Amino acid sequence: MTTTTTATDVAGWVSDFGRWAFDQLDGIAGLLEGPLATATPRRADLGIEQGCRDLLADSQTPVAGAGAVFAPDVLSDAPYWLEWWTVESRGGVNVVTKLAAETDPRAIGFRDYTELPWYTKPFESGQRHVTGPYVDYLCTDQYTLTFTQPLVVAGTFAGVVGVDVLVAWFEEHLLDVMEAVDRTCILVNAAGRVVTSSDPTWVTGDLLRGLPVDAWLRGDVVDHPEWTATRCDGLPFVVLTPC
């Protein structure tokens, strides 16, 4: 019996990956509950380093960065702070390093991360968020998807926990599923920007204008003349196939 792969299968793969990514965030957030519940939490008490290192050191990991970014003045010894690790492959071995970002607001190189979408969206909505694809000049210098969710302690927003996933890794693995579909598949984000496409006409970062992506994400029935859309449950992505 021949099994036909469909856009629903593609959307399912993306949704399953999203659930895995957010499971990692739940794990990081769980490690921070105790340290942040103290009266004067400090950087040295955070205790997520080994968990992040273990995640990144795995040779099969899709994650290029992991950690937590704190709301201003949550930590008693740093008004702004990123507790974040990144990984790069050197000779087939994953080398994990701590991100050295400028966190002194008086310094010339300081960048206010509270204005960046991977921070502002979870802060404003109280919900999980995926930022990208975008070129992450702060960490990876490559097209990246950043998964973040609010870090809440005693009912108060304390920052975000997150992981970075390189689009190159994501595309390589998703294309195995997309190319089994008998028609073009394009994964786009909520802005209509291409994440991955099985047709080289559209590449990562391309913008498909005029799409009713918001309506599709709400589950509305939309009679579009060119595209049929399949939602990816739990994520701000839809899979497009030609009508």
Task: Give the secondary structure arrangement, pairings included.
Elements: H1 7-36, H2 49-57, E1 63-70, E2 81-90, E3 93-98, H3 117-125, E4 129-135, E5 143-153, E6 156-166, H4 167-178, E7 186-189, E8 194-197, H5 213-218, E9 227-231, E10 237-242
Antiparallel strand pairs: 1-2, 1-6, 2-3, 4-5, 5-6, 7-8, 7-10, 9-10
Walk me through this protein's architecture.
Helix content is 27%, strand content 30%. The chain has a six-stranded antiparallel sheet with strand order 3-2-1-6-5-4, sandwiched between helices. It has a four-stranded antiparallel sheet with strand order 8-7-10-9. It has helices at residues 7-36, 49-57, 117-125, 167-178, 213-218; strands at 63-70, 81-90, 93-98, 129-135, 143-153, 156-166, 186-189, 194-197, 227-231, 237-242. It is built from five helices and ten strands. The chain starts with 6 loop residues before the first helix and ends with a strand. It is α+β, with helices and mostly antiparallel strands and 243 residues long.
